[in-house]
Design a protein that fits this description.
The protein has about 475 residues and is of the alpha/beta class. It has 14 helices and 19 strands. The chain folds into three domains: about 150 residues, Alpha-D-Glucose-1,6-Bisphosphate, subunit A, domain 3 (Alpha-D-Glucose-1,6-Bisphosphate, Chain A, domain 3, 3-Layer(aba) Sandwich), CATH 3.40.120; about 190 residues, Alpha-D-Glucose-1,6-Bisphosphate, Chain A, domain 3 (3-Layer(aba) Sandwich), CATH 3.40.120; about 90 residues, 2-Layer Sandwich (TATA-Binding Protein), CATH 3.30.310.50. The radius of gyration is 23 Å and the shape is globular.
């Protein structure tokens, strides 16, 4: 590919990302910054806060992006290399129109890109990102003359960020509690330990030094990649552990026995505590467990299912005045703090819950019912996968009843006490994913066989037609 060509595929539904020096160049980021500035001015917006993660290419790509914004006449406030939460906090505190964060989040080190948010921290929608893409690909970005270029300055609100979070907790109650924080050599190494120290939570660090090669574990925290943390928590006799992704908008919690909690388990434990303070809506995406309804509705929580993606999570959290928002991938939004998904507040809330309940985290986990869950990926051609989904929606509504079908994001079939099935077409791959959850292993296996069969049949019919 010629370096001046900009591939359309780097523009995803909720961010922009690509491999450096293959489909993402500094010149690409300059054009994207100029396009964002052009789009912002169409909306009457004039100011952007920007920050970047610790990747080797993030500073240079951020500077190129800034140059594009300034060229469009947008005022830029640069928070520099920092965590996502500290950057988003700066945009919120300074009441800027847009927050941009240069990162590839959990992807390997050769990747990079940018995520866009409103000043409040609500992620740009797919439609908003598409408008920026269209401006870039059509070459319709507009630069201003020299006397109209944007103003530029730098800020460091790290201390204000730490203090804001610390004020939400009683620092004396954490005395005696111990956590292990796995920063994974990512951006959270810049703030996590200082936040913990500020609230008097004793914290041992794993891989706190930022390193763009991610030498100790991948930037994606999973059960398979958190071997060190799962061993370190019981070895240190810590109360729990927390592992952050590369930029700090997702977190995974490990209990005192070294077991990784699912986002559903962690979300339920936090939501139970929040619902004691006030009743309200708990958001959960369509992939989240029925554990959420089973445990929280009896406490007065109103569960609202939303599409997968942090944009939907942040947007709905504001619109519904939610108590908590839960993403199956480990994003959480706690609007009593702020609307964006800063991972730092989650381990602090867990520590607070352990103090107030006097319980071990493993005890809180063990009292939750377990519902077996499984996902299967089915190959399906790009040209037909969405037509397959349309046909399946009609067929399943007829077979199971329209009242059992939710099509806001894929097709979720609610089987009541038995469980549920979700069929979703991948936005980025030639795949259709079938996820099922059952009240028992036997039910789960039966649901998987049933819904894989009906999906494979629909795929075969469409690919042969």
């Amino acid at each position: 590919m010629h370096k001046k060509e900009i591939p359309a595929h780097i523009f995803r539904a909720y961010d922009i990302r690509g491999i450096y020096n293959e489909d993402l160049y500094p010149a690409t980021m300059l054009k994207i910054g100029l396009a964002l500035g052009t789009y912002a001015k169409e909306r009457g917006e004039t100011s952007v806060v920007i920050g970047n993660d610790i990747r080797a290419t993030s500073t240079l790509l951020s500077n190129a992006f800034i140059s594009g914004l300034l060229s469009a006449g947008i005022d830029v406030t640069n928070t520099g290399t920092t965590s996502f939460g500290a950057c988003a906090f700066s945009g919120w505190l300074l009441k800027k129109d847009i927050t941009a964060y240069v990162t590839a989040s959990h992807l390997p080190p050769e990747w990079n890109g940018v995520k866009l948010y409103t000043g409040e921290g609500i992620g740009f929608s797919a439609e908003e990102n598409e408008k920026i893409r269209d401006i870039v690909l059509a070459g319709k970005e507009e630069a201003v003359l020299w006397h109209d270029v944007g103003n530029y300055h730098e800020v460091d609100l790290r201390e204000e960020y730490i203090e804001y979070i610390a004020k939400r907790f009683d620092r004396d109650i954490f005395d005696g509690k111990r956590a292990v924080l796995d920063c994974g050599n990512g951006s959270m190494g810049l703030v996590a330990l200082d936040v913990a120290n500020r609230v008097n939570l004793k914290a041992d660090a794993l891989f706190p030094n930022p390193d763009p090669s991610f030498p100790n574990r991948p930037s994606e925290p999973t059960d398979a990649t958190l071997v060190a943390l799962k061993a370190e928590v019981p070895r240190k006799k810590a109360d729990f552990g927390a592992a952050f992704d590369g930029d700090g908008d997702r977190v995974v919690i490990v209990d005192d026995r070294g077991r990784m909690l699912s986002a559903d388990q962690c979300g339920v434990i936090i939501a139970r505590a929040l619902l004691e303070e006030r009743t309200g809506t708990v958001l959960a995406n369509v992939e989240c467990s029925m554990l959420i309804e089973r445990e929280l509705e009896k406490l007065g929580g109103k569960i609202e299912r939303i599409p997968v993606g942090h944009t939907f999570l942040t947007k709905a959290a504001k619109e519904r005045d939610a108590v908590l928002g839960i993403e199956s991938s480990g994003h959480y939004v706690m609007p009593s703090f702020f609307l964006f998904d800063d991972a730092m507040v989650i381990p602090l809330k867990i520590a607070e819950i352990l103090v107030k309940t006097g319980r071990k985290l493993s005890e809180l986990v063990d009292e939750l019912p377990e519902f077996p869950k499984q996902r299967t990926n089915l190959q399906c051609g790009e040209a037909v996968k969405f037509e397959v989904m349309r046909v399946l929606a009609e067929r399943l509504a007829t077979e199971y009843g329209a009242d059992r079908i939710n099509t806001m994001d894929g097709i979720r079939v609610d089987m009541g006490e038995k469980g549920w099935a979700l069929i979703r077409a991948s936005n980025t791959s030639a795949l259709i994913r079938v996820t099922v959850e059952g009240a028992t292993e036997e039910i789960k296996d039966k649901l998987m066989l049933e819904f894989v069969a009906v999906t494979e049949e629909a795929i075969k019919q469409k690919e042969l037609s």
